[in-house]
Each structure stands twice: as C-alpha cells, then as structure tokens.
Design brief:
Layout (H helix, E strand, L loop, with lengths): L20 H6 L19 H22 L10 H14 L1 H33 L1 H15 L7 H8 L3 H25 L3 H9 L4 H35 L8 H10 L3 H29 L10
C-alpha cells in the first residue's frame, strides 16, 4: 500500500491576515497624511504668494508716481487709473466695450478652434489626412497672421469680419499643433491593450486615443486663448467703433494714458479669467491623470 502524504501549504502573503484600519488606530498607529513642506502651517497661503508679485509691482508704480520719478504725462499713477476706471464703469462705456470684445474673441475662437481641432484629428488619426493636411498647416503657421490684416480688409472690408477672421487664424494653429501632437504621442502600449481587448476602431479612438490626447488639447486651448486676446488688440485697430481697442484708440488720440492703462488692465484680467476657466476644466476632465503639482 502506498502511503498518502499530507502536505501543509503555508498561506500566501496576499491571503494572510491584514489588520483592519480600526485595529491600526487602536494600536496608536493612526494614518497621517503627508503634507509637502510648502503646505505647512507656517507657510503663507498660496493665494497670498500669487498676489504678492502684482501687489509689489503696483506699489512700486505708486511710489514712482508720487515721488515724480514717473511723470503723469508718461504714465498716469494708480490712483488716476482707478478713478478713470470708475468713471468709465459708471457711464457704462467699460462694460459695453468688454462685452463687444468678449463676443469677438468667443466667435473667433469657436471658428478657429473648430477648424484647428478638426484638421488635427484628421491628420492625427489617418495617414492620408497627415499627407494632405500637415505640410500645408506647418507652412501656414509660420506666417505672422497679423501681417494678413491688409488682405483681410481687402477681402472682407472693415467691419466685424476681418477682426473675427484674425482671431480665428490666430487660434487655429496652436490648437492644431497640440491636438495633432497629443494624438500622435499616445502610448503605443495603450493601443496594443485596446486591440487585445477587441476594441473596434471607433471605440479605440473614443476610449483610448482622444482621452490620452486631451491634456495636450487643453494646453493648446490655453495658448490659443492668449493668442486670441493678442489678435483682438490688433483687430480692434481696424476702424473699430466699439470694444476695448476702440477705447484705447480714442484715448491715444487725446494722450489719455490713464484710459490706456485701464484697457490694458482689462485685457490682462480677461486673459487671467479665461486661463482660470481652462485650469478648472483641466482639474475636472483630467482628474484621472496624476500629475506633478510642485513641491
């Protein structure tokens, strides 16, 4: 008769008893969240540090104006600028100008962004699209779009069309470049994993390629918004009858440096606002993507 040996198998590490969270806390080993040194109680809040630069700049500007180092004829002081901004706000000129300029930027961004993203998707997903589109876009993006203002005036007059077209041209290329690069830089491992799972081509594009390209697309959107406001400054010099650029042009004729500074500050604040909007979108849509946030 053959004897039957009894073999005792030790439990694997994954099957061993793991202390519960309550047991760990009872043992005095409560979990502690590790905070970076910059987030310690002794550190200043981030909003204070972020605001310190602009505040210091305004203080230096005020001191230079009060001491006479910066004459009012060259650049009005902060108090004069604030007073002019209040007057423009009370008369309603400032709100009307902001609204007109904002509408122009949004329309131009919608047109240019749609064209840029559509061409980038075609060139990024399909080789024939790359062959037909990419070379033309790479040549066209090197042209300074501001230099096209004379042609835009000849083609579409001096109304709203050349202003919006200028913004659309300025915003299309950054979005095209970033979306195209985002699609082509998708990790090939993800593509192979999708094929292994049996994803169709449409499902692969929807669930793998486009989500992986989204970070680059949002970077392109931030850059395009900056170019949009820069294009607006030039576009509103084309026989504008309303908008922030129109206020600047009128103030230039009368050497009103305070109004010019008000318009520049409004441009900067609007740019900051739209950049904050894109940052918020990044936090919402890229919550799944761990990223370095500084130390």
């Amino acid at each position: 008769m053959s004897s039957i040996a009894t073999i005792t198998i030790a439990p694997r590490a994954a099957e061993r008893h793991v202390p519960s969270e309550a047991a760990i806390q009872d043992a005095g080993l409560a979990k502690q969240r590790i905070e970076p040194a910059s987030a310690s109680a002794r550190a200043l809040p981030r909003w204070v540090r972020r605001a310190s630069g602009p505040i210091a700049l305004v203080l230096l500007w005020h001191i230079a104006s009060v001491t006479g180092a910066l004459p009012g004829e060259v650049l009005a002081g902060p108090s004069t600028v604030i007073s002019s901004a209040v007057k423009l706000f009370q008369t309603g000129e400032l709100q009307a100008a902001i609204w007109v300029s904002l509408v122009r930027v949004l329309i131009g961004l919608a047109i240019g962004g749609t064209v840029g993203v559509a061409l980038a998707v075609l060139a990024g997903l399909f080789r024939i699209g790359e062959d037909l589109i990419d070379a033309t876009m790479q040549m066209a993006r090197t042209l300074p779009h501001v230099a096209l203002i004379p042609l835009l005036i000849i083609w579409s007059g001096i109304g709203e069309a050349p202003k919006i077209a200028l913004i659309a041209l300025g915003t299309a290329f950054p979005l095209y470049l970033n979306v195209y690069a985002g699609i082509r830089n998708v990790d090939s491992t993800l593509i192979e994993a999708g094929r292994t799972l049996g994803l169709s081509r449409a499902a692969m594009i929807r669930h793998v390629v486009l989500p992986a390209a989204l970070p680059s697309a949002l970077v392109g959107l931030r850059y395009s918004l900056g170019v949009a406001w820069l294009s607006l400054v030039f576009g509103e010099q084309i026989n504008a009858t309303a908008g922030i650029g129109y206020l600047m042009a009128t103030a230039r004729e009368f050497f009103q440096t305070d109004v010019i500074v008000v318009c520049l500050v409004v441009y900067a604040l609007l740019g900051l606002a739209v950049d904050f909007t894109v940052r918020t979108l990044e936090k919402v849509f890229l919550a799944w993507r761990p990223a370095f946030s500084g130390t």
